[in-house]
C-alpha cells in the first residue's frame, strides 16, 4: 500500500478536479445510501417482529439483491461506453449504446423474475431454516421478485445516466423509491392507517411498489428530450450488433464478477446460518448497519469510473490517473469517518435494527470489528470502479475472484467448520478479504493496462 501513500502525498492541490469529483460523487453517494435504505428499512422494521422474521428477510434480501447485481451487470458495460463516447463528443454512439443496453436488460429482467419465483423454496431448503422462517422468506422473495424487470431497468438506466455525467437523476429516483418504501413498510408491516397488519409480507409489498415506481421514473428520465444523450424510442427496436457485441464483451466479465461475489456471499450466508438463528440474525443486523458505510466509497468509485472513462474518451490519460487517486483520497477520509463511528457507538447503531438483547450484543461486537475494514473497502472499491470505467472489466474480475473465492470462502470455512469459532471471528476473516482486495486494486491499476483498452 506504500505506492498509494506516495502518489497521494505527491498530489498538489487541484480545486477544479476536486469540484469535478465531488459534483458527481455526492449524488452517487446519496443514491447508494437511499437504495441501500430499502433493504435497511425492511430489516430495521422487520427486526421488531423477532429473530425468525429477521432471518427470513435477511436471507431473502441477501440472495435477491446479490443476484440482482449479476443481472444488472450490463450497466457496467454501458456506463463505460457512454462515458467514453460523451468524452469524445459522440452523443449518437452513446444513445445507441443506451438503447441496446435497455433492450438487453428487459430480457434479463424477465428471466430474473421467473427464476426468483421458481428458486425461492430451494434457497430456504439449502439454508436449513425451520419451516416458519422458510415460509415467510419464500413469500417475501417471490413478492419482491415480481418487480425485477423494472428494477433491472432502474440499475441499467442509472448506469447510462452516470456515464453521461448525470448522477443527480438516479439520486432523485432513489429519494422517491425510498419514501414509498419507508411509508409502505410502516403502514403494511404494523397495520396502521387502516391497513391490515401484514408483517414480512407487508415489507415485501412495500419494496415491490417502490421498485416499480423507481423503474418508471428512470425510463421517463432517459427518454425525455432534455436528456444529455437524447435516446429515442426507436433505439429499443433497432438492433445494432456491433454495439451489442461491445456491451456484451465489457459486461460478461462484470457479470462473472458479480456472480462470483453474489455466490460467495450467499454461500457465506449458508455457512453463517449453521451458527444458529441468533448468530445469523446478528450477522444480518451487522451487514445492514455496515451497508450504509459502503456508500461513500461506492460514490467515489462511481465518480472516478465516470471521469476516468470520459477522460480516456477525450485522450487525457494523465487526467484519468489523477482522478482515480484523488477519488481514493476522498474515499479514505469518508470511510475513516465511518470506522470511527463504528468503534465508538456500535450499540447505539444496532439498536435501530433489533430490540433482541442477545442479537444486539453480538452484532455490536461484530460492527466494531467491521470498523477495521472501512478504509480498505474505500481503496479497493475506488480502484475497481476506476478500472471498470476505463473498460478494464477483466482486471476488476480478477480482484473480485481472488478476494471472494481464494480468500473469503476458504477463510470462513476454516473459521466456522474447522476452528469452530463464533461470529466475531467470521468478521475478522471478512476484514482480511478487504485488505487483500485493496492491495490487488493498487497492483492492477498501477500496471496501466486500462490505459490501452479500446471500446469498439
| Structure class | mainly alpha
Number of domains: 1
What sequence of helices (H) and strands (E) makes up the elements?
Answer: HHHHHHHHHHHHHHHHHH
Average pLDDT, rounded to a whole number, is: 86
End-to-end separation: 34 Å
Task: Give an overview in words.
This protein has one domain. Helices cover 82% and strands 0% of the residues. The radius of gyration is 21 Å and the shape is globular. It is an all-alpha fold. The longest helix is centred in the first third of the chain and has 37 residues, at 91-127.
Q: What is the topology?
A:
Blueprint: H1 2-10, H2 15-46, H3 51-71, H4 74-87, H5 91-127, H6 131-145, H7 148-163, H8 168-190, H9 200-223, H10 241-273, H11 277-291, H12 294-313, H13 317-344, H14 346-350, H15 357-370, H16 374-389, H17 393-418, H18 423-447
Helix pairs in contact: 2-3, 2-8, 2-9, 2-11, 2-12, 3-5, 3-6, 3-10, 3-11, 4-5, 4-7, 4-10, 4-12, 5-6, 5-7, 5-10, 6-9, 7-9, 8-9, 10-17, 11-15, 12-13, 12-16, 13-15, 13-16, 15-18, 16-17, 16-18, 17-18
